[in-house]
Specification:
It comes from Tanacetum cinerariifolium. This protein is mainly β and 80 residues long. It has one domain. Helix content is 0%, strand content 35%. Strands 1-2 form a two-stranded antiparallel sheet.
Length: 80
């Protein structure tokens, strides 16, 4: 019985480990395709996902006793 699953990854992800133990796999029940186009994702040289700021949605300053804490709500390009 096979205990691992090997993915056929595109060339852009050649540095990503492509073999997984079956205990790490979970069923996915989705109504729409989960494929995300790779051209819209950005990775650094260590294959960490790079999020980029799209827009600043809101700003406010929270007061806590004598402190002022600036809060910024940001929309990122994240596809997570």
């Amino acid at each position: 019985r096979d205990v691992s699953y090997k993915l056929n990854l595109p060339e852009e992800l050649c540095r990503v480990h492509n073999t997984f133990h079956v205990s790490n796999l979970k069923k996915c029940h989705a109504d729409e395709p989960l494929a995300v186009p790779l051209d819209r994702l950005h990775f650094d040289d260590k294959l960490h996902f790079v999020e980029e700021l799209v827009e600043i949605v809101n700003r406010e300053v929270k007061r806590l006793k004598r402190s002022r804490i600036p809060l910024v709500k940001v929309r990122w390009n994240s596809k997570r």
